[in-house]
What we know:
This protein is of the alpha/beta class. It has a single domain (9-172), classed as Rossmann fold, CATH 3.40.50.150. It is built from six helices and six strands, in the order αβαβαβαβαβαβ. A six-stranded mixed β-sheet has the order 2-1-3-4-6-5, with helices on both faces. It is globular. The protein starts with 8 loop residues before the first helix and ends with a strand. This is Methyltransferase.
Amino acid sequence: MYEKTFPNKRFKHTLEFLEKHVSKSETILDLGVENPFSDIMKREGFKVENTTGEDLDNDQSAIQKSDAKVVTAFEIFEHLLNPYTVLQSIKADKLLISIPMRLWFSPAYRSKTDMWDRHYHEFEDWQLDWLLEKTGWRIVAREKWTNPVKKIGWRPLLRYFTNRYYIVYAVRK
């Protein structure tokens, strides 16, 4: 067995949460193109397929056609204009979502070089909870964690104490 190393703390927390709630025998549809974390899930023995880069705000056909038992959306919902429609289109009975939380001391992320790499939504935990409830999901488990950075200043100091990520495991009501 190899040593589990991760490029960042977020991947470690996300994998531990996934392993608590999803069996490796269940099929997963991971929203978003193949990425470093979907590669980690596969390496850990999960059966994962990804969407192919379609604009999920306008086209949920990949979600609707999928027979996966679990849908994961790790750091995806903040990029969507309309996560409500995406959540309604999911046929699976299990859902794991992680998001970067809105920070009162920092504006929403917006890349200056990539027009698609922007956060339209940076949720507070209650907002994601309400969105899930309104779209027919019941939250079974949730966790939050901080994301300190190795910089000097007030905002980096606040990141040691302020939760940055929120992950939820939900099932159909």
